[in-house]
Amino acid sequence: MWWRSVGHTHTAYALETLIDMVAGATNQNPYDLRIGLLAGEGKNQKRLTAVLKLAAEKAGWGEACTGTFQGMAVHKSFGTYVAEVVDISLHDGAVKVGKVTCAVDCGVAVNPDVIRAQMERGIGYGLGAIMRNRITLTNGEVDQTNFPDYEPIPISDMPMVEVHIVDSSEPPSGVGEPAVPVVGPALANAIFAASGKRKPITQLPMTENGFVFS
């Protein structure tokens, strides 16, 4: 229901992780596959392609140093187009999210500082949820009572975030929620790249799948 970015969370997660699975099964670069799927002259295709290219360029897609693995995702929600690239590394079996590069097209950038702040906070919110947050019920009552049981992302888990705003003359659109749906699948796809396995992470949060984050 009224969870930040509502249905876009699981929609983007299902689609964008599936695309990486297809890329793995067909020996394609996930970026090239997405660019090919977005080919066309439609406005949505052009704007999604633009943010995807910008995020990949700024993140140095395909040029990560040894020990760093990248995953990407792109999605439109609330009239806004967002692409993100997540850089991770592995330390003693634990996943460390080092950097998130975000490109956003929200039409005319009325207040760039607010746009960047909303993207940064949406990324933090989405990471906390996808990594370890959950709400469970027993006999109809919520089990989690406070932050020790439902942990917002700690500062030690918050990666470096870069936000790049596409110059646009389109009407302004939302920035409060669109960063959230993209970061989860981008993280999952980075984990795919690190493990070499294109097995979907279908149980969330990721700690429920046995993942440890540092």
Can you walk through the features of this model?
The protein is α+β, with helices and mostly antiparallel strands. The chain has a single domain (8-198), classed as Aldehyde Oxidoreductase, domain 4, CATH 3.30.365.10. Helices cover 37% and strands 21% of the residues. The chain has 5 helices and 6 strands. Helix 1 runs parallel beside helix 5 (180-195) and helix 4 crosses helix 5 (180-195). The protein is globular and about 50 Å long.
Task: Summarize the structure in short.
The chain is 37% helix and 21% strand.
Give descriptors for this structure.
5 helices, Aldehyde Oxidoreductase, domain 4, 214 residues, 37% helix, alpha+beta
pLDDT < 50 runs, ≥5 residues? none
Structural class determined from secondary elements: alpha+beta
Percent in strands: 15-25%
Largest sheet, if any? Answer: 4 strands, mixed
Shape: globular
Q: What would you call the quaternary organization?
A: single chain
Q: Could you name the CATH topology?
A: Aldehyde Oxidoreductase, domain 4
Mean pLDDT: 94
Instruction: Give the strand tally.
Output: 6
Number of helices: 5
Name the strands of the widest sheet in spatial order. Answer: 1-2-3-6
What's the name of the CATH homologous superfamily?
Aldehyde oxidase/xanthine dehydrogenase, molybdopterin binding domain
Number of domains: 1
Q: Output the helix-strand order.
A: HHHEEEHEEEH
| Rg computed from alpha carbons, rounded to a whole number of angstroms | 17 Å
CATH class value? Alpha Beta
Q: Which bin fits the share of residues in helices?
A: 25-40%
> Can you name the CATH architecture?
2-Layer Sandwich
Distance between the termini: 30 Å
